[in-house]
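Worked problem 6 (solution included).
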Amino acid sequence: MSAASALVRRAASSTIGSLFAAQTRLFPERVAIEDDAKRLSYAALDNAVNRAAHAMMRLGVRHGHRVAVLSENRIEYLVLELACAKVGAILACQNWRLSPQELQHCIDLAAPSLIAVSERHARLLSRISIGTIPAIAFGPEWERALNAAPDHAVEADIDPEDPLFILYTSGTTGLPKGAVLSHRAEIARSFVMPLDLGIRSADTILCWPPLYHMGGTEPALCALLTGGRVIIQDGFDPIRIAEIVTRETFGWLSIMPGVVGALIAALERNDALPKGVGNCGVMPDLVAPHEIARVTKLLDACYCNTFGATETGTAPLSGNRIAPGVIPDNLAKAPSPASEIRLVDADDNDVPDGDVGELAMRGPTLFSGYWRDDAATAEDFRDGWFHMGDMFCRRPDGCYDYVDRRKYLIKSGGENIYPAEIERVLLGDPRVADAVVVRRKDARWGEVPIALVVARGAIPDVGELARRCRAALAGFKQPKEIRVVSPERIARSTTGKIQRRQLEEWIASGES
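Solution. The predicted structure is:
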């Protein structure tokens, strides 16, 4: 590379940390982030971020090191995110809903140099083995570390392709995978998201979805990179949200599947009159159509007709919306900006309009593969396109109808669950000869897992199997029903493949 080319590349190499610092220079006194107890300007937040970066480095964290965080939504969480961005460290965002066994796998996979934990989740962390990894607690210990650190900016050589986050996704083998998100991907998502969701420059974002999830972290980063304000909320509180929308305006308000009914009830109970909401919601496929109509009428807001993933961001198919008060009769998706889309057959050949194919995409919002899993990365990125495992049919008007999933997956309240995650636990019981998990439609969560087990000898106690699942799996992965069935009931093809669709139909029929 010539000296001139190197200078050009350097000038184009913005990162999450440098873009946040640019907003600080523009709007030092503007409120950047707040919760019930504290409010920080951009200058104050940047000061805390710089101190946190130096504090981490004093604890041995360097460029490329992983920092694990196990915490509820709080200001320190976003400070840590931005501090990692400035150091060049990778934040491994731990899901506190996981069981200790699952969390142990996630920590071992990331192999962090430091763990940050809140008081609320310290007990969960104590139930796993972290060896000699140092841990720092949010609260007085964290504040002491920041107060003892300098507040000048950290000078680090960071490339936009360097990883920034590891967000965990469900795995087909039954254990979570770590999706790697680079600075480039997060920057792209921060500028595509406004087009998909209607977030405006200097908007306020209500951050109630968990920050270990893209639905929490990415809108918050989008706000901080565009001069906006982040209101941190510790989880979903429909009464509080109903109150906030009466005094704050939002270009977009996050409403995840599974909570729409509770928010409707809170809005109606309080006769809430929203100050102004442009758009709301995500993933309407998992929400009852009449609930979409009710919540959008109450908020006087469109519902975002999204289809994305941790690996892709809101892209590739989140480009249209459902009008307020309308009960949608179809949920055809429009392409998002900054994504190229193909529908391909089993041999990765393009399919014509009207035929069903797997959605493959490429674009700047894409993740950088799975942490320490080259085989899965190579398989999903074959031919230089990311294959999502979701089947669509393209209409002549350029919109896409969702058909099914190539990889059998249960989407419950916005969370992904692979049957193997539950089957692995059930098959670990010596009294279980076979176990199959399928999905069942659910009015609140969209879909829920149902487990069918075949006994090995004496019939196992269903309650004991349920307790085994509770001990090993996150709450949202718990089977809503466990049935002991005969071996003949587990429908299989002539090649031995489980016929999950046939089992779904049997469960839906209500037959015993």
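Discussion: The longest helix spans residues 42-58.
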